Amino acid sequence: MNRGVRSESSCESMLVADLRRGLPFSTGFPQLVEGAVVTYGSYDPYVQSDRRTARQLERERVQAAAEARDRQATERTRALEEHASDLENLLLVSLARDPAIDLAQRRRRVDVPPLNLGNLERPLPVPEWSAPVEPSRMKRIFGDAKRYDEELRLAQQRFAWAQDDHRRREAARHEQIAQVRQEHEHRVDTAEREAVAANERIDDWLRGLANGDRLAVSDYVELVLSESPYYGVSVTHRAGFVPESNLLAVECFLPTVEVVPSYKSYRHIKTRKAVEPVPRPLKEIRDIYRRLIAQVALRSVREAFAVTPPELISTVAFMGRVRGVDSVTGQQIEPYLISMRATRDQFTPLVLDEPKFNPVDCVRKHFFANVSPHPDELVAVDPVMTFDMADPRIVDPIDILSGIDQRPNLLELTPTEFEAFVHNLFAKMGFETKLFSSSAGGGVDCVAYDTRPMIGGKYIVQAKLFTKTVRPTHVRDLWGTVDHEGATKGIMITTSGYGPDSYEFANGKRLDLIDGSGLLALCREHGIPARIVKRSG
Length: 537
Known about the structure:
Blueprint: E1 5-6, H1 8-20, E2 31-33, E3 36-38, H2 45-88, H3 137-141, H4 144-210, H5 214-226, E4 236-242, E5 247-253, E6 263-269, E7 274-279, H6 282-306, E8 315-321, E9 324-325, E10 332-333, E11 336-343, H7 344-347, H8 359-366, E12 370-371, H9 415-428, E13 432-438, E14 444-450, E15 457-464, H10 472-485, E16 489-494, H11 500-506, E17 511-514, H12 516-525
Parallel strand pairs: 5-8, 15-16, 16-17
Antiparallel strand pairs: 1-3, 2-3, 4-5, 6-7, 8-11, 9-10, 11-12, 13-14, 14-15
């Protein structure tokens, strides 16, 4: 065999060797010429060129894949940062938005499309008579007259059939038109009735707001808070207006700690050719979650004050809770993570858009809020009040049917009877009570003992059978008694309400202020019939 020429078996060996090295099929396949392989000694420029091209393409592919992973890591990190930024700015982004809702703009209009009959509107074409061609006189002589008469008879018969069919189809069309008109009129009538009913509800709602109606105010503020955008953060509100104290109770179900991204960023691990998450430090997760809770509280209070007049709402009680699972028992729980009271005078001076403003410090140090030390672990705090004490759907101190209601009216009790009533209420609540003083004005002071181990204590209870707002001096006197007796807590119960000064004084102290609505809620909870109705004159 001449030099430079290899046999087919040699070619096959060379091809197998190249394939084992991972080279493309065409790279190691020399040219075949009449059963021989033409080569170029030990160096083949065509093969070397193909190999260089393959290596270059492989380098470009590897580089493109690495750049794609870099972009993926950057995009995922940016999404995490944007979500974390949204959580950190829930309060700030709401400041530029007016939360008020114009109910008048929500009056419903009748929006039913006009009647469209479509093809039914066009009458069907009337059949036209088409007579057969009459034969000439000559053709009649040769017998065409009989054939013509038969054709004329058939044409007349077909025309009569066409006329009958036209009449039937036209009658059906008119019936269908009548049905379509009737259905359209029904839709219009239904829409008009629904619009009238909806607009009447809006008008009643507006009148209720103007008159300070308890249910109307509660529903309006609840609507405002429910339509406040939180951009992907699950937050739901309930609102209850307590007119005797000019207080609005807001209960909010907060998101759990899982709302905070558990990853801080994503990075490209080049050695493994993978994009992997970088965990967010636990302390940072907890800090973000605490700030989120404080921001939701301040934002809710701000929006409640913004949409209500000062003479109607002077104090907002905010209670934030979550739905979760007790890790010890596996049971569903709804612990309170934050509870605070804010008066309008306290809230108005706040500069919420100040860069150095710290929402956590604000709720703790300015409003003396009860904040969970470990909200991510669902450690509960005591609420300043339960929402049932303000929910107008559960108990209304102004009973429309008071004339036939058999429940005792607390305002008609004597001081001694009211004293016995309070004693009975706390006994129903599981306390051991002992009277230690009374007053002719209807106030009763007693000591209530919670005998449960570890969590029990001594409570100073004072009741005020008032029809007017309890003065702050009474609250201060109660605090003095609590402090002097070393009691666990002081509880004041009244048949009326409290002013913002009383609530402001009680913030951060071991005091519970229960107004008339709260008293009726407690009675309802423990099966004691009662109502509070002011007698005219």
